[in-house]
Specification:
Elements (H helix, E strand, L loop, with lengths): L6 H26 L2 H4 L1 H18 L1 H5 L3 H30 L2
Helix pairs in contact: 1-3, 1-5, 3-5
Keywords: Membrane, Transmembrane, Transmembrane helix
Amino acid sequence: MTLSQHLWFRVLSYIGIFFLSWSVEFLYMLGLGNRIVNNLGLFIFGAFIPFLVSLTLTFKFMRKGHLVGSIALNVINLFFGIALYAFIALVLIGANST
């Protein structure tokens, strides 16, 4: 039995991929700073960075047949990204309305 077939290894890998994808997201936000607010394309692309990172990192598990965990991780990252940017959009709308 290889290491990637153990459940505990896959769970730890999914948790690591989740935190890695969101650390890439926050570094992206810090690196571009004020440009995200001024450019709608960067703003929208930023919502999908965790999804894209986790999708590319879970291809190995998808090829091995572990689709449920891989798809669940990608969907969670996608919804967290959309929720984060909806919150940021609401804050920006509130800041611009005063």
